[in-house]
Design goal:
seven-stranded mixed β-sheet, alpha/beta, two-stranded parallel ribbon
Length: 355
């Protein structure tokens, strides 16, 4: 809308309510009718129509890599290219070095890995811990995880609510089975089948150790509260492993060493990166402070949301030139600035237009 476009917004079919509330708030704030439009339905029907319809000028999608890449390919099948911005999955790594404040690192990783049940693209799902810090970090991580309440998300003191659907539960169980086969499920890993939570998709957060570093536990996004922990010998090894993923959304490090901090920020391949963030090792970009988006398989544009280049993707440039004939009389031809600007302040030579 900031780029001058009208919007058709379709939330995930399993989670439509927050989108409805956003629509209601914009309507109450006085946004003209028809500027922001809200629809719901299955991706296979409603979603397919939205990105296939030739009357839709451009598409922006947030979701899985498989769905995002399918949309990206299909949008390009029309008579002309249309803007298509896809924000996709993450397999986000945290690195723990010997100089880290262990309690901060454990709290940050726990919050990032298990907040919202790991059901967010920025969730921390793999940790590379220097061999000198493994034992105290894992012990602190388990203690921090034990303190969190699993229960109804409408209760204020609940930290971990249910998984969103049966498909998510199946992915969780697949990850746990893989953890038992290839490593050690050091903590958690069970579906809750007793008491008042027995009829929902409630599960325990799981911490898995000893799995091979090339295990799918370190490569596949399960979108559930399963965290894989691996021991490394150096920062170089940790960054190399973090960058080996096909994703590049977020990453974090805990270290008090300035040179290690600089090397991490210089070499890490991710769009939103953090150092020593107790509130969430790889999560929690602050609106108005940090832009958010991914590299590689996590995003198509490299221009992060809320960043200085993001809105320009929703606009078209137009260079305007008027050629004024030479004057046949003594009157001097009027001066004219050939380059006009409208809308956002691009550059003096660019006229942004909406999609």
């Amino acid at each position: 809308m900031l780029g001058g476009n009208t919007v058709i917004f379709k939330p995930a079919s399993d989670a439509p309510f927050t989108g409805l509330r956003l629509y209601e708030l914009l309507h109450q704030a006085g946004l003209p009718v028809g500027v922001f439009n809200y629809v719901t339905g299955a991706g296979a029907s409603v979603g397919e129509e939205l990105f296939q319809n030739p009357d839709v000028s451009g598409v922006i999608f947030t979701g899985s890599k498989s769905a995002g890449m399918e949309i990206y390919r299909k949008v390009a099948q029309h008579d002309f290219a249309r803007p298509c911005i896809i924000e996709m999955s993450g397999k986000n790594a945290a690195i723990i070095m010997p100089s880290a404040k262990i309690e901060d690192a454990a709290e940050g990783v726990m919050r990032s890995a298990f907040g919202f049940g790991g059901q967010k693209c920025s969730a921390c799902s793999r940790v590379y811990v220097h061999k000198q810090a493994v034992k105290p970090f894992v012990e602190a991580l388990i203690e921090a995880t034990k303190r969190q309440k699993i229960g109804s998300p409408v209760e204020r003191d609940t930290f971990l609510g249910p998984l969103i659907n049966e498909q998510a539960l199946n992915k969780y169980q697949k990850a746990i089975a893989l953890g038992k086969k290839e490593g050690t499920v050091l903590y958690g890993g069970h579906r809750i089948t007793k008491g008042e939570l027995a009829n929902g998709f409630f599960v325990e957060p799981a911490i898995v150790t000893d799995a091979p570093k090339n295990s799918k536990l370190f490569e596949e996004e399960f979108f559930t509260p399963v965290l894989a922990v691996a021991e490394v010998k150096s920062l170089d090894e940790a960054i190399t492993l973090a960058n080996s993923s096909g994703y590049g959304l977020t990453a974090g490090i805990f270290t008090e060493n300035g040179q290690e901090q600089e090397e991490f920020f210089t070499r890490i391949e991710a769009g939103a990166v953090y150092c020593n963030r107790r509130g969430g090792a790889t999560t929690g970009a602050w609106p108005g402070v940090q832009s958010f988006g991914g590299w590689k398989g996590s995003g198509s544009s490299g221009k992060n949301a809320l960043g200085p280049h993001y809105i320009q993707q929703f606009m078209r440039e137009q260079s305007q030139t008027i050629v004024i004939p030479e004057s046949t009389g003594p009157t001097k031809a009027p001066q004219f600035d050939a380059f006009q600007r409208r809308g956002m302040d691009h550059t003096d030579a660019i006229t942004p237009r909406r999609w």
